[in-house]
Structure formats: structure tokens, C-alpha cells
Design goal:
By secondary structure, this protein is mostly helical. The chain is built from 9 helices and no strands.
Length: 187
């Protein structure tokens, strides 16, 4: 896919501006999901997704073909999300079932534990919501999108060791937040 992206970028830079629609089609869902997680509002998320593509189009000549296009584009999306979060001076919210991957580590469901599992799911969502955007996004990109450390490092403009450390710290923070909710008496 990287070579396809590079060919599309080359076409756009050579004047075939309609080819940019292929990039939008390919990446609009992942960017929209990022913005929904940031805003908790589908309408605002659509606006921010569009802003991301407009900024990417305006900066397309800065894309370096030796990098993965998705990493470059997602970095622009993260910056748009961070700018939005700063502008409104409030916490970002998570929407949907983005953290189901983590629920597998909580406990297997036993008969009669449906309500308990629902409470754990809500606690985990809340815990993830309370993480700073950079930690939340790196966890989601690693475990939901199954990106490798090298790709995460490129997206977040980190060294590979710094990306590993951010993942480690994010998981630690997530567990602490989750445990505070599930076991409030043990503080």
C-alpha cells in the first residue's frame, strides 16, 4: 500500500488533484475514528477529519517518500486533534468500543457476571478517557490497529525506545486509572 500511496501523492503533485480523493477514501475512516475519540461528537469529528485532509493537501509537497504515508497523515491528524483539545480546554472523550481489546485482560465472563462486565467496560472506557491524548492514541494504535513500534515511533515522532516507553507508561497509567475505579477501597 505504501507504493500505491507514493504513486498517488506523485500524481497529485504533478497536477492530478482529483487523485487526492483516493487518499481520502483510503484513510477517512481511521482519521474520523481518531477525531470521534478526541471530540465525542460525530459532527465535529467530521469537520476535524476534513481539516486534516485540507492540511495534508496543502503540505503534500513536504511528504518524504521514504516514510510511510499513513504515518505522515496520521501525525497531521494527531496535531489537528491536539489543537482542537487545546482550543476547547476540556478533556477529550472516547466514543464507541475502541478498547474491547483490553477487556480480555480483565477476566473471562462467568455465568451471571454480565452486569459486572458492563461495569468493568465502562470503567475501562473512563480510564482510557482520562489518559492524555498521546498515551491514549498510542495504546489504541498499538492494540486496536496492531501497528508495530517502528510505525508508532514514526507517527508520534519518537525514537523506537521512546515509543516503547510511552506504551509502557500508558499501560501503567491505564491500569492505575482502571484499578482506582474497580477497587476504590484499596487506595
Amino acid at each position: 500500500m505504501a507504493n500505491q500511496d507514493n504513486r498517488i501523492v506523485a500524481r497529485v503533485l504533478e497536477g492530478d488533484t482529483d487523485a487526492f480523493a483516493l487518499i481520502v477514501q483510503r484513510y477517512q475512516e481511521v482519521l474520523f475514528n481518531l477525531m470521534v475519540r478526541t471530540t465525542g461528537d460525530r459532527e465535529k469529528a467530521a469537520d476535524l477529519t476534513q481539516d486534516t485532509f485540507l492540511k495534508a493537501y496543502a503540505r503534500l509537497e513536504t511528504f518524504q517518500p521514504d516514510r510511510r504515508f499513513f504515518s505522515w497523515l496520521y501525525t497531521i491528524g494527531l496535531n489537528v486533534a491536539r489543537d482542537y483539545t487545546r482550543r476547547i480546554s476540556r478533556r477529550a472523550f472516547l466514543a464507541g468500543e475502541e478498547i474491547m481489546w483490553q477487556l480480555q485482560k480483565v477476566q473471562p465472563q462467568l455465568p451471571g457476571e454480565g452486569e459486572r462486565r458492563q461495569i468493568q467496560r465502562m470503567a475501562l472506557r473512563d480510564a482510557l478517557d482520562r489518559l492524555p491524548l498521546g498515551y491514549r492514541e498510542i495504546l489504541i494504535m498499538r492494540f486496536r490497529k496492531d501497528l508495530e513500534i517502528r510505525e508508532l515511533a514514526a507517527i508520534f515522532n519518537l525514537s523506537e525506545s521512546a515509543a516503547k516507553m510511552r506504551l509502557h507508561r500508558g499501560m501503567k497509567m491505564l491500569k492505575e486509572q482502571f484499578n482506582e475505579f474497580v477497587e476504590p477501597d484499596k487506595q
